[in-house]
Design a protein that fits this description.
By secondary structure, this protein is α/β, with parallel strands linked by helices. It has 15 helices and 14 strands. Bound molecules: beta-D-glucopyranose (BGC). The site of beta-D-glucopyranose has 17 residues, from helix 7 and strand 11. Catalyzes the phosphorylation of various hexoses to hexose 6-phosphate.
């Protein structure tokens, strides 16, 4: 990206100069709570840091799980062999075959499977049977049914790990809510499903979260990578923590390791009410309509599953107050999630390019009567919701950079649809991380498919660890 393009992304902030001042005054009153000033940001940062420390204790209290991943190493170039990788976290389940030779990865073979709603909300056992049947289909279509392959399982939900291959589900998030899985060892549930079939030889070598996969894949691409971030349907981050700070360790802590990856599960930041001072009426409404009410508070402020709906509920409120759309609502606008993250990105695209084509199409598709003032307000809302998202994510990343205190450059590997498709988020993140961590050198790197490639690499690291023990 050229430097000019980057500044355009930061500078073309939509204004309200052409909107009736009476409307602007009312609009600002209703949207001011979404704006976070420096004092509030510092307060959030302090709370985040305190919660991280609490989460690392023996009987973790607080809202951040700070899950120990038991991964004490990053790829070092010695990874070899063939690995299966599974990637479960959304409606699209993937099975991959990865080949590593002298630490280099060839293009993986990948197969996608749609996870229907009845599976996502049905019985746990049936869901794992479905995963096992997908593994079977994948291996059969690649003539590999008899192969005994180590498997890396990316399971993008909060889990409590007891080792690299034992993990209990803490809670479902996003669009999943299968019965009988919370508190269970998901590796065991997958292995049981594999054994129930009796026709597969695969064996789970490692389980990981998608943030962990992103960090591992990031480190494979760039040796300065120490943070993984997902900004997709859900959100979460992980980082390299000094081992002496990690008290939540099952079994004996190996004496020869210095760092371990900690999966923060920061989507749950604020579940204990500690940052309720930033919660607006719009956030409350989005939460009330979500699948798992009163949980995953932080994620609901900005992740892809929710960010569009925040815009929608603000639009509804403004229409009810007679500030936009001639005070009229449409059935579509009243429909939960009819305004998704990709529409927010299209509106932001219009703002950056100083056009209105996308905004007009969106209003037409939503059966809304609109004029130029409405378009200006719509653009402004999408900007302030995006700006708040960037500030909240940046404050956590700035805290991590300071906490890790690494000399020199730290690369933050990022994956996720929201980050990839939002035209301004990358520029805003850079701006705010630099503001909140002024003494740190950092760079953001898109590290695509950490959930797939990272799972294969983690399985390879698990093999290496096993051999060396
Ligand atoms: C889950 C995390 C995951 C994140 C990104 C969240 O809802 O709790 O475990 O890393 O989504 O997929």
């Amino acid at each position: 990206m050229s430097p000019n393009a980057e500044s355009k992304e930061i500078e073309n902030i939509p204004g309200l100069e052409k909107v009736d001042p009476v409307k602007v005054e009312k609009y600002e009153k209703l949207t001011n709570p979404l704006k976070l000033n420096d004092e509030t940001m510092l307060k959030i940062r302090k709370i985040f840091e305190d919660e991280m420390d609490l989460g690392l204790q023996v009987n973790p209290k607080g809202c951040l799980q700070m899950a120990n991943t038991y991964i004490p190493q990053l790829p070092d170039g010695s990874e070899e062999g063939e690995y299966l990788a599974l990637d479960l976290g959304g409606t699209n389940f993937r099975v991959l075959l990865l080949k590593l030779e002298h630490g280099k990865m060839a293009d993986p073979i990948v197969k996608h499977f749609h996870v229907r709603e009845d599976i996502r909300l049905g019985k746990g056992e049936a869901m794992f049977d479905f995963l096992a049947s997908c593994i079977h289909q994948f291996l059969e279509s690649n003539n590999m049914l008899s192969r005994k392959l180590p498997l890396g399982f990316t399971f993008s939900f909060p889990m409590y790990q007891k080792s690299l291959s034992c993990a209990h589900l803490v809670s479902w998030t996003k669009s999943f809510n299968c019965e009988g899985v919370v508190d269970q060892d998901v590796v065991k549930m997958l292995n049981d499903a594999i054994h129930r079939r009796g026709d597969l030889q695969v064996e789970v070598a490692a389980i990981l979260n998608d943030t962990t996969g992103t960090l591992i894949n990031g480190a494979y691409l760039d040796g300065t990578c120490s943070i993984g971030l997902i900004l997709g349907t859900g959100s979460n981050a992980c980082y390299l923590e000094k081992v002496e700070r990690v008290k939540n360790w099952e079994g004996e802590k190996p004496s020869d390791i210095k760092e371990v990856i900690i999966d923060i599960e920061d989507g749950a930041f604020g579940d204990n009410g500690v940052i309720d001072f930033i919660k607006t009426e719009y956030d409350r409404e989005v939460d009330n309509k979500s699948l798992l009410v009163n949980s995953f508070t932080f994620e609901k402020y900005f992740a892809g599953q929710y960010i569009g709906d925040i815009v929608r509920v603000i639009l509804v409120k403004l229409a009810q107050e007679g500030i936009i759309f001639g005070g009229k609502l449409s059935t579509k606008l009243l429909t939960h999630q009819c305004f998704n993250a990709s529409l927010l990105s299209s509106v932001e695209q219009d703002s950056i390019q100083m056009t209105t084509t996308n905004c007009r199409k969106i209003c037409q598709d939503l059966d809304l009567e609109y004029d130029d003032e409405d378009i200006a307000i719509l653009k402004h809302i999408c900007y302030i919701v995006s700006d708040r998202a960037a500030k909240l994510v940046s404050i956590t990343l700035a805290s991590l950079l300071d906490r890790m205190d690494k000399p020199g450059l730290v690369t933050i590997a990022i994956d996720g649809s929201l980050y990839k498709h939002h035209p301004r988020l990358d520029a805003l993140l850079k701006k705010y991380i630099a503001k909140f961590a002024p003494n740190r050198q950092f760079c953001l790197m898109l590290a695509e498919d950490g959930s797939g490639k990272g799972a294969g690499l983690t399985a390879a690291i698990a093999q290496r660890l096993r051999k060396s023990n």
